[in-house]
Amino acid sequence: MTKLPKLKLHHVNIASTNVPEMDRFYREVLGLGDEDPAELPPIASDNEVVGKVAFVTDGDIQMHLSQKDVLSSFKTGKLVNPLERGHIAYRTDDIAAFKAHLDAQGVPYADWGNVAVAGWQQIFFYDPEGTIIEVHQVGDG
């Protein structure tokens, strides 16, 4: 069996119809704050794919508060739609090996490449209950 690349929880994405209100809630009610700007994902220049987004952190894990868009899969041509329900995201240093692992396990995934975040290679897939999971690698991948 091939050794599975290490994954580290990076962020939780919550889809919302009111990003500014969610941002206010997580800042004022939960006391979350701003991330170091160097740690934020460089959103791709085509903001039509991503829509409104806010970022907050507890100092370790980011939360991405994204504009809900049930039509994003039509706009991007990708099967897994991370802007409808939100998702859990893990970072890896070997996305190719992780994709090979998913292939060996028979788990289908949507390969977003760097469509949404410049410089991040992203894949999305579902767990058995339909939770969307992202795995990404910073860099070429």
Automatic annotation (TrEMBL):
Stretches assigned to the VOC domain: 8-138
Name the UniProt record assigns to this protein: VOC family protein
TM stretches of this protein: none
Alphabetical list of Pfam families matching this protein: Glyoxalase
InterPro entries: Glyas_Bleomycin-R_OHBP_Dase (IPR029068), Glyas_Fos-R_dOase_dom (IPR004360), VOC_core (IPR037523)
The organism of origin for this protein: Pseudahrensia aquimaris
